[in-house]
Amino acid sequence: MKKENIILIGFMGVGKGTVARALVKQSDYFAVDTDDLIESLENKKIKKIFEQDGEPYFRALEKKCALWCEKNIKGSIISTGGGFYKQENLKKIGKVIYLQSTFEAILEGLKNAPNSKKKFKKRPLLSNLEEAKKIYNQRIKEYEKVADIIINVEDWDENKAVKKIFKAIK
Ligand code: S3P
Known about the structure:
170 residues, alpha/beta, five-stranded parallel beta sheet, binds shikimate-3-phosphate
């Protein structure tokens, strides 16, 4: 039987990629990341796409990527950009897991990361923290609504998150 994909959604910097890598380490899943797919499709970093082509163009790429994922990805962990949850076909791609945390805990984690500067720099929507907080407040209810499973990751313990996820999808 083919395994269903697992899609990780949640706010920028919450640790979707980190949790995806931890899940892969403890299973026979492979992981893909929608931002990585978009960057290789365009041969450009997300930051450059925002700067040169604008956010609407990036959102159109996300849609294209979502359609591609639905058709082509099987048995994988898919980590996504923070706005990917809006895709109409999200549920058709796989089981949706929302990694939940407070805005403050996310910022704290990003600030304490060893490569903190880089983590902020590569995310255009984090350049203005007041605006980012507004986006966070708008999105939290929407993330919850679209999620099949909600996992709290405020404690930054990815192994705990992995355990909870495997338990939830069993
Ligand atoms: C975005 C999140 C980013 C990236 C882009 C837009 C968003 O991904 O897709 O900068 O709208 O929340 P991360 O969630 O990995 O930071």
